[in-house]
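Quick review question:
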């Protein structure tokens, strides 16, 4: 498949905070190829025609059926996109991975089973397995003959995954004996192969490939809020003997497996959430068109238009950020010399864009939560009963803010990773913050006279970046090594960074749509403008709170004056713009940019 982006110089991870990009250098959904669209349609038809009709059976824990569906997805080529043909995969780009995660989200329960197989088992075996392990397991995992699961979490160690207590005791013949228990494992009830993390001799955190036949037992199915059609159990290891060649990666290097898998998985979860958010707009739009109150469809009321308009805006922003990230990952992989069968370029690319993967996960899961909550609200009483899917979607989606690293952990990671890169010299954040300080102490600079479409928004995004720099720079100066103790400040910094990335991604996509004469480019501009208008208020509020936690008196007054100088966004008529987006969604019966 052709490379999906024409970036000449590929932006490094986090670099968008310091530099602006050109629309021509950014991948957007409007650039999808026919091949991309064909795979998306295949995945969509599979979920619509083969999964959703049997969802009740899955919810009754029919795991034989779940296995059959995984096999069917494999037959359709949906399982192996990240794995080269040499190992039985189909070796396509990350835009394709994104599209498949997006479409699979239409059945969240099966999407979880599929994700545990495709992202949490196949990916680690492919990326970290020995040649023998890959030959032994990948073809069977990729055909769906073997079902996989990922055992990282334990009762006492969820976010603190490296604090695992499961022990692997080394035997004189080089084998290991595993003892311990893993919690909340997706596919736990019926998987055949487990990626399990345990501490060798209680110290060296290590990943293992453990077959059920070695003696793994599953606990009972958890009674969950949602995802009833996905198996979630504990895994019990009681003197489970594991051969020496079952170590995945290296002894003591389990963190490399865990963290790299999470980089992939977070991005894909973001894709599933973004896709889920866009897809559910059709339920709201259709219901708003048909449900009548006070003699008119509820979609005629401004209060409902506001909700649908905002759903579209949020879906547009996360979608823009996701495709931009997929384009960057693909460009980075393409620019790294490697053999087709070698996954190290993909590992390096996902490491490079780990900040963006965390952003995808947090913004995606929160956008989805917003959309699903408003979807229930638009459905009124019908949203609260099981006759409509709205309540199931809402229950199913809540966990997205909890797994693959909670949103708190991911929020902390975003500024944490940016700062670490700055300190390593990989991201010139410190000189940029100093230059900004000088700029703010100097006389005001002449305002640009650019009045092209979206020029105000472009200036606003440039200002958000400076605010982000100001907050991060002040935080580093104020707290130094102790900054990691100041979680509230870091969370505000993360919120600003997320708004910068999403606002700029939406802006670049709308600019690109305008320049390329895309269909309904006017609506692209509407969505981007609303997002950026509202982001200005969020960025301002986060910055004020962060700065006030770091300074007081005259210093704080100077910082707030600088903030005022940076964020000079004149409010636009978002009422009208949201109405336009909502009217179009209602007219089409779904997401405006699908
Ligand atoms: C349906 C479902 C499926 C799952 N599937 C899998 C799977 O397949 N494999 C697997 O290994 N795990 C799986 N999990 C487990 C999941 O990854 C964990 O639940 C998650 O990582 C959170 O861990 P925890 O539940 O122990 O919460 P905790 O870590 O106890 O967190 C509780 C709260 O404290 C916050 N918190 C924790 N530490 C910090 C900190 N340092 N700073 C600030 N706040 C903090 C968290 O953000 C959260 O709000 C699944 C969970 C569910 C519910």
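Suggested answer, residue by residue:
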């Amino acid at each position: 498949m052709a490379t999906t982006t024409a970036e000449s110089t590929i932006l490094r991870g986090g670099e968008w905070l310091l530099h602006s990009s050109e629309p021509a250098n950014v991948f957007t959904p409007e650039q999808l190829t026919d091949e991309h669209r064909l795979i998306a349609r295949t995945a969509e038809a599979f979920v619509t025609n083969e999964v959703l009709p049997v969802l009740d059976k899955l919810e009754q824990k029919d795991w034989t059926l779940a296995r059959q569906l995984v096999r069917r997805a494999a037959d359709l080529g949906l399982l192996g996109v990240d794995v080269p043909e040499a190992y039985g995969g189909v070796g396509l780009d990350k835009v394709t991975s994104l599209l498949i995660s997006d479409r699979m989200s239409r059945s969240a329960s099966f999407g979880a089973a599929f994700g545990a197989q495709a992202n949490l088992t196949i990916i680690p075996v492919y990326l970290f397995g020995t040649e023998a392990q890959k030959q032994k397991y990948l073809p069977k995992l990729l055909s769906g003959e073997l079902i996989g699961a990922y055992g990282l979490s334990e009762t006492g160690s969820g976010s603190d995954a490296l604090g695992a207590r499961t022990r692997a005791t080394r035997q004189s013949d080089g084998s290991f004996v595993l003892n311990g228990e893993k919690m909340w494992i997706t596919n736990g009830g019926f998987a055949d192969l487990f990626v399990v993390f345990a501490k060798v001799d209680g110290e060296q955190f290590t990943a293992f490939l453990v077959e059920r036949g070695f003696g793994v037992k599953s606990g009972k199915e958890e009674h969950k809020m949602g995802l009833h059609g996905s198996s979630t159990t504990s895994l019990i290891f009681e003197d489970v003997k594991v051969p020496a060649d079952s170590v995945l990666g290296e002894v003591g290097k389990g963190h490399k497996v865990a963290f790299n898998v999470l980089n992939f998985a977070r991005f894909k979860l973001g894709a599933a959430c973004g896709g889920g958010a866009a897809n559910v707009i059709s339920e709201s739009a259709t219901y708003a068109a048909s449900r009548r109150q006070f003699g008119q469809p509820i979609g005629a009321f401004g209060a409902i238009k506001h909700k649908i308009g905002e759903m579209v805006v949020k879906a547009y922003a996360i979608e823009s950020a996701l495709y931009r990230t997929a384009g960057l990952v693909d460009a980075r992989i393409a620019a790294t010399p490697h053999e087709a069968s070698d996954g190290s370029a993909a590992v390096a690319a996902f490491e490079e864009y780990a900040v963006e993967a965390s952003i995808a996960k947090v913004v995606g899961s929160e956008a989805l939560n917003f959309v699903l909550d408003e979807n229930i609200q638009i459905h009124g009483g019908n949203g609260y009963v099981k006759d409509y899917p709205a309540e199931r979607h809402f229950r199913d989606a809540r966990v997205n803010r909890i797994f693959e690293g909670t949103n708190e952990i991911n929020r902390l990671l975003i500024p944490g990773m940016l700062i670490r890169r700055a300190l390593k010299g990989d991201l010139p954040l410190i000189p940029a913050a100093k230059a900004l300080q000088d700029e703010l102490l100097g006389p005001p600079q002449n305002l640009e006279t650019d009045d092209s479409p979206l020029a105000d928004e472009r200036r606003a995004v440039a200002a958000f970046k400076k605010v982000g720099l100001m907050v991060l720079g002040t935080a580093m100066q104020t707290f130094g090594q102790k900054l990691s103790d100041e979680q509230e400040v870091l969370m505000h910094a993360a919120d600003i960074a997320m708004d910068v990335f999403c606002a700029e991604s939406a802006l670049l996509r709308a600019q690109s749509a305008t320049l390329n004469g895309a269909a309904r480019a006017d609506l692209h501009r509407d969505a981007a403008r609303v997002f950026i208008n509202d982001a200005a208020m969020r960025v301002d509020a986060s910055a004020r709170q962060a700065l006030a936690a770091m300074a007081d008196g005259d210093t704080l007054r100077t910082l707030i004056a600088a903030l005022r100088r940076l964020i000079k966004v004149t409010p636009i008529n978002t009422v009208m713009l949201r109405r336009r987006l909502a009217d179009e969604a209602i007219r089409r019966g779904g997401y405006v940019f699908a």
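Why it works: The beta strands are 148-151, 167-170, 176-186, 193-200, 204-211, 217-218, 232-242, 247-248, 292-293, 296-297. The CA atoms of residues 234 and 312 lie 38 Å apart.
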